[in-house]
Design goal:
It contains one helix and five strands, in the order H-E-E-E-E-E. It is mainly β.
Protein backbone atom coordinates (compact mmCIF):
# COMPACT_ATOMS: atom_id res chain seq x y z
CA UNK A 1 0.00 0.00 0.00
CA UNK A 2 1.31 3.45 -0.93
CA UNK A 3 1.91 6.04 1.77
CA UNK A 4 -1.04 8.41 2.16
CA UNK A 5 -3.37 6.31 -0.01
CA UNK A 6 -6.54 4.99 1.57
CA UNK A 7 -7.29 1.49 0.27
CA UNK A 8 -10.92 0.38 0.11
CA UNK A 9 -11.08 -3.29 -0.87
CA UNK A 10 -14.13 -3.98 1.32
CA UNK A 11 -17.16 -1.79 2.17
CA UNK A 12 -16.10 -1.50 5.81
CA UNK A 13 -12.68 -0.20 4.66
CA UNK A 14 -14.53 2.87 3.39
CA UNK A 15 -16.24 3.34 6.79
CA UNK A 16 -12.87 2.87 8.53
CA UNK A 17 -11.41 5.67 6.38
CA UNK A 18 -14.09 8.01 7.79
CA UNK A 19 -13.20 7.50 11.47
CA UNK A 20 -12.77 10.83 13.28
CA UNK A 21 -14.23 12.62 10.23
CA UNK A 22 -17.57 14.39 9.80
CA UNK A 23 -20.04 12.21 7.91
CA UNK A 24 -23.59 12.31 6.61
CA UNK A 25 -25.90 9.34 7.18
CA UNK A 26 -29.24 8.97 5.44
CA UNK A 27 -31.72 6.85 7.38
CA UNK A 28 -35.09 5.28 6.77
CA UNK A 29 -38.01 7.57 7.46
CA UNK A 30 -36.57 10.53 5.52
CA UNK A 31 -34.04 11.36 8.25
CA UNK A 32 -30.47 12.55 7.87
CA UNK A 33 -27.67 12.78 10.44
CA UNK A 34 -24.44 14.77 10.27
CA UNK A 35 -21.74 14.24 12.86
CA UNK A 36 -18.26 13.03 13.69
CA UNK A 37 -17.79 9.25 13.46
CA UNK A 38 -16.17 7.71 16.55
CA UNK A 39 -16.88 3.98 16.22
CA UNK A 40 -18.73 1.42 14.07
CA UNK A 41 -19.18 -2.33 13.79
CA UNK A 42 -19.91 -4.88 11.05
CA UNK A 43 -23.67 -4.16 11.33
CA UNK A 44 -23.06 -0.43 10.64
CA UNK A 45 -24.05 0.48 14.18
CA UNK A 46 -22.23 3.77 14.73
CA UNK A 47 -21.40 6.25 17.46
CA UNK A 48 -21.39 9.91 16.43
CA UNK A 49 -20.68 13.14 18.27
CA UNK A 50 -21.74 16.74 17.55
CA UNK A 51 -24.79 15.40 15.70
CA UNK A 52 -27.43 17.36 13.81
CA UNK A 53 -30.55 15.44 12.80
CA UNK A 54 -32.75 16.68 9.96
CA UNK A 55 -36.19 15.12 9.58
CA UNK A 56 -38.55 15.88 6.71
CA UNK A 57 -42.30 15.33 6.80
CA UNK A 58 -44.66 15.69 3.87
CA UNK A 59 -48.31 16.56 4.36
CA UNK A 60 -51.16 17.74 2.17
CA UNK A 61 -52.90 21.04 2.94
CA UNK A 62 -56.60 20.18 3.24
CA UNK A 63 -57.79 23.48 1.76
CA UNK A 64 -55.44 23.87 -1.21
CA UNK A 65 -54.50 20.18 -1.62
CA UNK A 66 -50.89 21.32 -2.02
CA UNK A 67 -48.09 19.10 -0.80
CA UNK A 68 -46.16 20.79 2.02
CA UNK A 69 -42.71 19.61 3.07
CA UNK A 70 -41.77 20.51 6.64
CA UNK A 71 -38.23 20.20 7.94
CA UNK A 72 -37.25 19.79 11.58
CA UNK A 73 -33.75 19.94 13.07
CA UNK A 74 -32.34 19.05 16.45
CA UNK A 75 -28.89 18.41 17.91
CA UNK A 76 -27.27 15.77 20.12
CA UNK A 77 -23.85 15.84 21.79
CA UNK A 78 -23.46 12.05 21.33
CA UNK A 79 -25.63 9.50 19.52
CA UNK A 80 -25.76 5.74 18.89
CA UNK A 81 -27.10 4.90 15.41
CA UNK A 82 -28.52 1.44 14.85
CA UNK A 83 -27.19 0.05 11.56
CA UNK A 84 -30.40 -1.54 10.27
CA UNK A 85 -31.83 1.93 9.57
CA UNK A 86 -28.83 3.15 7.55
CA UNK A 87 -29.36 3.70 3.82
CA UNK A 88 -26.27 5.75 2.89
CA UNK A 89 -23.01 6.91 4.49
CA UNK A 90 -20.84 9.61 2.93
CA UNK A 91 -18.17 12.13 3.94
CA UNK A 92 -19.62 15.56 4.72
CA UNK A 93 -18.46 18.28 2.36
CA UNK A 94 -17.16 21.50 3.84
Amino acid sequence: METGKKETDEPLDFIRSLLDERITIKLRGDRELRGKLHAYDQHLNMILSEVEETRRETRVDEETEEEIIEQYKRGFPMLFVRGDGVILVSPTKG
